[in-house]
Design brief:
Length: 165
C-alpha cells in the first residue's frame, strides 16, 4: 500500500512538472517568434536632407543599426538590436548636429524615439510582448526622419513670425 502511494505521488509530481514545462515552453515559443512583415516601413529622406544626413556619421551609425530591426528572427536578436540602438542613440545625442538640424524639433523627436526604445527594452526584460513598443519606436523614428524633410522644405521665416517689431 505504501509503495502504491509513493508511486502515485511520484507520478503526480512528474505529470504536474511536465505540464508546467509545456506551458513555459509554449509561452517561450510565442515570445521567440517575431513577425516583422506588418511593422511600418522606414520612411525615406530625399533631397537636401539626405545629403546633410549622409555627412553625419553618428546618424548613419544609428540608421544602419535601425535597418537591422527588420531582420530579427527571435527575441534574442531583438534584445541585441535594441541594446545597440540605445548605445548608438546616446552617441547621436552627444554628437555635433548639422546646423540645419540643431533644433529642438529634431532633438525632441529623438528623445521620443529613445523613450520607445527603452519601453521596448523593458517589455523584453519583463517578458511582455514587445511588438506594440517596437511599432511605436518605428513610428517615432519615422517622425524624426520626416522632420528633417519638413525643416528643409519650410519656406517660412520663423524670425519674422516671432519678432514683434
Amino acid at each position: 500500500m505504501r509503495s502504491v502511494f509513493i508511486l502515485g505521488a511520484l507520478f503526480l509530481a512528474f505529470f504536474s512538472c511536465n505540464t508546467k514545462d509545456k506551458e513555459v515552453s509554449s509561452t517561450q515559443d510565442q515570445i521567440v517568434k517575431i513577425e516583422t512583415k506588418k511593422w511600418p516601413k522606414k520612411l525615406t529622406v530625399a533631397g537636401k536632407a539626405a545629403t546633410i544626413l549622409s555627412e553625419w556619421p553618428e546618424f548613419n551609425a544609428f540608421d544602419s543599426s535601425f535597418d537591422a530591426i527588420y531582420g530579427v528572427e527571435g527575441k534574442e536578436d531583438l534584445i541585441l538590436i535594441i541594446e545597440d540602438l540605445i548605445e548608438k542613440q546616446k552617441l547621436l545625442a552627444k554628437s555635433k548636429y548639422p546646423e540645419d538640424f540643431n533644433l529642438p524639433q529634431v532633438k525632441s523627436r529623438q528623445k521620443i524615439a529613445l523613450t520607445y526604445l527603452l519601453k521596448t527594452k523593458g517589455d523584453l526584460e519583463y517578458h511582455i510582448n514587445a511588438e506594440e513598443s517596437v511599432i511605436e519606436f518605428i513610428n517615432a523614428y519615422n517622425a524624426m526622419r520626416n522632420q528633417f524633410t519638413v525643416l528643409l522644405n519650410n519656406t517660412l521665416n520663423n524670425k519674422l513670425i516671432l519678432d514683434e517689431e
